[in-house]
Amino acid sequence: MVTEKTLERINELYHKSKAEGLTDAELAEQKQLRADYVKAFRENLRGQLESIKIKNPDGSLIDVKARHDEKMKRLAEEQAEKGN
Fold it and tell me: Any transmembrane segments, and where?
């Protein structure tokens, strides 16, 4: 989880890198903090996308993930049929 303190440290290291440069330890810390931030961002985005519901023309609701899974299954079946 990325906290406000983590974001402050990321920004602090960024500004220091522009002003005077970073030590090897600080570069490693910056790299790790950025990786953690990107991971948390992606997990959050995925969670938001998976919670979206799509309303079908018939009025029924379906999860985006379920719709995607159905589409991938259908495409795989079509490709398998073409391969035979």
Answer: none
